[in-house]
Design brief:
Blueprint lengths: L1 H19 L4 H14 L7 H26 L5 H22 L4 H21 L14 H18 L4 H10 L4 H27 L9 E2 L2 E2 H22 L4 H27 L1
Antiparallel strand pairs: 1-2
Helix pairs in contact: 1-2, 1-3, 1-9, 2-3, 3-8, 3-9, 4-6, 4-8, 5-10, 7-8
Pfam family, one: TauE
Organism: Acinetobacter kyonggiensis
Protein name: Probable membrane transporter protein
Length: 269
C-alpha cells in the first residue's frame, strides 16, 4: 500500500513538473508530510525528510521534463549555464540552513513563500512581456541562481516558483521560462539532495529506509512515475495560453501555501 501511494504521488508530481516547471516539489512535500505523519515517524524530522526526499526525486523529474521541453526548442541553454553554478552551490548551502530550522518553522516558511509567489504570478498573468526588458549580465544571473538555490533547498522545490517569475520579469515568455526552469531544477536537486543526505546523517533521530533526510522507498516509487508523467505535463504546457498557465500555477501555489500555514500554526497551538 505504501508503494502505491508513492507511485500516485510521483504521477501527480511529474505532471506538475512538466506543466509548471516547478520540479513537482510543491506537490511532493505536502503529501509526503501527510504520509510520513501517518507512518508515525518522529515529528521533529518529518518536514526535513519530506523536503530532502522531494529534492532527490526532482533529479529524475527534471531529466524527464527538460528532455520534453528541449525537443520543442524551449530551453534557453545559455541562461541555464549562467544560473547553474549558483543554483548548485546555493542549494547545498540551503540544505545546511534547513537543518537548523524546526519542522514547524519550515512549514510556515514554505506556506508564506508559496502564497507570496502565487499572488505575484496571478497578478501578472495578463501582463504582456516588455520587449525592452533583458536578462542581466552573467555575474548577476549567477548571483540570482545562488539565491534561488538556497531558497529551493529550504523549500524542497526545483526552483520553478522563483526561476519562472525571475525569467518572466526579464522578458522571457512563460513557456521558455518554464522550460529553462525545468533544466535549472537538476543542479538544485542534485546538490540539495546530497546536502540533506549529508546533514541528515548527523541527526540524532533515525528513520527506517532512509539515507540522512532522503527516504529511499519514497524516492524510488515517486521517481518511477514522475519520469513518465513529466513528459505529459510538458506537452500540455505548450498547448495552454501564457495567461492561463500563470493563473493555474498561482492557484496551485496558493492551495499548497494555505495548507502549510494551517499546519504550521496548528502545531503551535
Amino acid at each position: 500500500m505504501e508503494l502505491i501511494i508513492y507511485l500516485l504521488i510521483g504521477a501527480m508530481a511529474g505532471f506538475t513538473a512538466g506543466l509548471f516547471g516547478v520540479g513537482g516539489g510543491l506537490i511532493i512535500v505536502p503529501i509526503l508530510y501527510i504520509v510520513f505523519t501517518q507512518l508515525h515517524y518522529d515529528a521533529s524530522v518529518i518536514m526535513h525528510l519530506a523536503v530532502g526526499t522531494s529534492l532527490a526525486t526532482i533529479i529524475v523529474t527534471s531529466i524527464s521534463s527538460v528532455s520534453a521541453h528541449h525537443k520543442r526548442g524551449a530551453v534557453m541553454w545559455d541562461v541555464f549555464r549562467n544560473l547553474a553554478p549558483g543554483l548548485a552551490f546555493g542549494s547545498f548551502i540551503g540544505a545546511g540552513i534547513a537543518d537548523y530550522i524546526s519542522g514547524q518553522g519550515l512549514q510556515l516558511l514554505i506556506g508564506f513563500f508559496a502564497i507570496w509567489v502565487g499572488y505575484g504570478m496571478f497578478n501578472g498573468a495578463s501582463k504582456r512581456i516588455d520587449p525592452s526588458q533583458h536578462l542581466p549580465a552573467k555575474g548577476m544571473q549567477m548571483l540570482a541562481g545562488g539565491g534561488i538555490g538556497i531558497a529551493s533547498a529550504i523549500f524542497g522545490i526545483g526552483g520553478g516558483s522563483l526561476t519562472v517569475p525571475y525569467l518572466n520579469r526579464h522578458g522571457v515568455v512563460i513557456q521558455k521560462a518554464v522550460a529553462t526552469s525545468a533544466a535549472g531544477g537538476l543542479p538544485i536537486a542534485i546538490a540539495g539532495a546530497l546536502g540533506f543526505m549529508w546533514f541528515g546523517a548527523n541527526a540524532t533521530v533515525e528513520v527506517p529506509h532512509s539515507i540522512g533526510y532522503v527516504h529511499v522507498y519514497a524516492f524510488i516509487g515517486i521517481s518511477v512515475m514522475s519520469f513518465i508523467t513529466a513528459k505529459l505535463g510538458a506537452k500540455v504546457a505548450h498547448k495552454l495560453s501564457p495567461a492561463m498557465l500563470k493563473r493555474c500555477f498561482a492557484c496551485l501555489l496558493t492551495v499548497v501555501g494555505s495548507y502549510f500555514i494551517y499546519q504550521g500554526f496548528s502545531n503551535y497551538f
